[in-house]
Amino acid sequence: MPKHSILVTKVSVHPRMKPDDLLDVSAFDKPDGDLLLAFYGFLKALDPDRLVDRSKEVYTALGDIATRGRTIVVEVEGGNFGTAGVTRDVDNHEIVHQRDPNMAATYHARLVVFVPKAAKHALVLIERVGREVPARRLLDLFMAAFKANYGSHMLKFESIVESDAWMQAAELDRITGSVNQYNWSADIADASTPRGVGRLERTLRPDGPGKHLPKSLLDLLRAKRVNAGHLLGFPDDAEPDELEVQVSAYGRSKTFVIDKEKSPRFAQVIAETGDPTPTAEDVRKACVEIVPDLFRNVGVAWETRWEQGVWTPEQLKARLEVPDE
After folding, report:
1. Cβ neighbours around 234 below 10 Å, total
2. Is 230 helix (H, G, I), strand (E, B) or coil?
3. How much of the chain exceeds pLDDT 90, in percent?
4. What 8-state DSSP symbol labels residue 238?
5. How far apart are CA 21 and CA 32, in angstroms?
6. Which of 55, 199, 244, 291 has the least CB density, counted as fewest CB within 10 Å?
7. In what helix (H) or strand (E) does residue 178 lie, and over which residues does it extend?
8. pTM value?
9. Helix (H, G, I), strand (E, B), or coil: what is residue 139?
10. How far is the C-alpha of 182 from the C-alpha of 23, rounded, in Å?
């Protein structure tokens, strides 16, 4: 099983004429301007065919939608299509299934929405499976649906990055780099086209239990003052496409991706490679555990009582018009 981690997106609502103003996400537009109900209504009204992004050859499908208090847990399935392939038995290497270009190899993941009362921000916690984020398509469509239904308002999505204060207290546990590997077509007429054959990863860990890599190394990597390819021993002077670090503090570990802007995106690991696949309840509990700190970092006090509560029949009738693209 690939590694499962949680990515976090901060959501805010703004008046279209005053985009710098922040509105209450639970009451931004009377009488039904509650972002929680708007997102639920969007999910329930969504045509399954709309989730298939044919331009990018990405398939997405909705599963169960569970409401509880001021939260929603959504089961999502997604993956790429457009290329023929096979499924093999890893024990005997035999082909057990042929995959046509219109078939998608999918991953199961969850998306958990937290919308506090009388606050300026909501949070969407998205499960990433390996490097796949099956729920990403949902947020793109919700943005369009929100714009169509609340024309005088606008949504803003921002990825949560880890605070410098937390980073200063953390120890550096490991560094993982990954790079695309290519070979070249044997057809002379097609010789200039690179063909992807896989992804190479290398990980640097300190020897022995309880040891850590130097804290200064993280700052050097973020500032690109250390050649990550040389550090991780990539062949042929290859430069990693993505550099991931794991740090630990206060008895917990977190994983970040150092992107081109050198901003580490928050990524809470909930299951390492080879661990049992987390259930929807496992993901919800993991999200509930970390969300108070996440809200605190954006200036919102999350109350645990909002994690419980049965929705009324009227709330469950909420629907949002989803426009055609």
Report:
1. 19
2. helix
3. 44
4. P
5. 20
6. 55
7. strand 171-184
8. 0.71
9. helix
10. 48
